[in-house]
Amino acid sequence: MKFDDILPKLGEFGRYQKYMYLLICVAAIPSAYFNLANSFLSASSDHYCKVYDNQTYEESSPLKNCTIPFDSDGLWDKCNRYDINVSSGISKDLCYPRTDTINCDVGWVYDTSTYERTVVHEYDLVCSRNWMSQLSKSIVPLGNLIGALFCGQISDVIGRKPTFFVSLITAIIVAFCAAVSQSYAFFLICQLIMGICSTGMFLVGYVIGVELVGVEYRTMCGIVIEIFFACGYMLLAIVAAAVNGDWRKIQFVAAIVCVVFIPYYWLINESVRWLLQKSKFDEAESILQKAAKINKVSLPDDMFADEREFAKLSPEEKEKQKENNTDEVQRTMIDLFKTPNLRVRTINMSYQWFAVSFVYYGLSMNTDQLGVNPYVAFLLSGAVEIPAYLSVWWLLNKVGRRWTMFWYMVLGGVSLIISVPPEIAEVSAAWATIGKFFSAGGFAIAYVFAGEIYPTTVRNAGMGLSSTCARVGSIISPYVMLLIDVWYPLPYLIMAFASIIAGFLVLLLPETHNQEFPETLHEGEIFGTPAWDELKKEKEEKEGERPGIETNDIELQVNMDIEDSASADACSKVDTSDTNHIMSSDDKTGLDNGGFKQD
What we know:
There is one protein chain. By secondary structure, this protein is mainly alpha-helical. The protein has 27 helices and four strands. It has a two-stranded antiparallel sheet with strand order 1-4. The longest helix is centred in the N-terminal third of the chain and has 29 residues, at 130-158. It is globular. 49% of the residues are buried.
């Protein structure tokens, strides 16, 4: 009996599945915390040149008037001071006339009213070293990408559950180490490792939780786990505000949050699909029988008799059987570019992912630039994701994928353009938050749309390429924010036009709502064309009329979260037994789990 034939008998979303999935959803909270923590860890505040040790920040004072010049905008210069010695005090003769200016040779004094202590304060990551503060914001997404490449492969060898707990324990240890870091280089290393561990926890945990859920419930599951991710987003804002932005305390709390999940070792089970792939039929049956007991249903005693017999075959006999199954033919990312229509759609979809991730992380990681209370702005930025996901859930099946994504991307870009004038900070922040609403919703749609438009034989490779492009967007977004020093509106305008361009380009893609999924490369090439309609008619004539596949049968996880699982396959090959799959290759849709935006 095939695994997918067991699910209807077990119950597609019974008490056992709800229990397991709730546990995994809660585990999404620390992933969000890790992925976005550098919004506060590496936050900057007003500063100017220090002229003696233990100097404190002042809005205005005789000493500041004497030592700090004004810049071209008439504001206090942040990176230069007058070349005078104030060790013996200040006087009119000393301060006037003005002398030449020099760089801040003694260091800087920082405004600690909003952030008590950040990595920027502690390691002086300002002025010529400002790029280093953005590096710490890019290093976690880089870790997410590396984590997808390695955690997916490791979980395929040692199992999903061991990989989850290796990631969890490593995250706890490294988070504690980061909290006591004494150098910026060591801090960066810790952030990179935590990015890797975050992916290991979220990706592998999600696969464990969702594999026992029926196809028609996967849309809901994708939405719900994103809501928990948003809760982790908001938790970070609350913790940061409670400790007044002290980066060491924020990092310490991250470790404590992970400690709470150690009991999961006794609460969650190994992936049944992985056990079957490794021919561990007894353990798989034990888990399924336990699930059946909780769901109050009965399952056969020997559910995998055919699989046991197949496992006994010689390697030559197994290979001979696979040769007769065209679904076993492995495809790679290169196959996406062999035909013109599929090539153009692949490039288009890859840009969609790049743009939406670029905007999402650009807004999420830089709330300190909005000119309002950063804790409130960050909290609202996370809270606004919840209605965004719920609205997308409703609109996808009412309006369709293409037009819904068009409006979310275009309206998101327009919101950012309106947010540009900085004269009224509250209004600007409000429009940026509206832009975040549309960006988060666009991310959700991108997962669904990409999963439906790529043909089954290369779907995992397509998702891998798309999620890799998304990671590129999340990695470079912090550096684009450096352009604020050139012209304040510039980074927001760049994000706005990137989003608007993506919105218009998405109209070039075929609508996938209420459409059967393309199975082969040929079907993927003609999908959405008159030839596709003719092919469907021919199938109906040969096989008789068969019901269409509901669009919500393949909804993917809506998060910056699990996208990186697909990235692993993009770097190698499409593996129908890979850890990143939500469904097996035997599933009719052949849909694989995409990535997660934890970017």
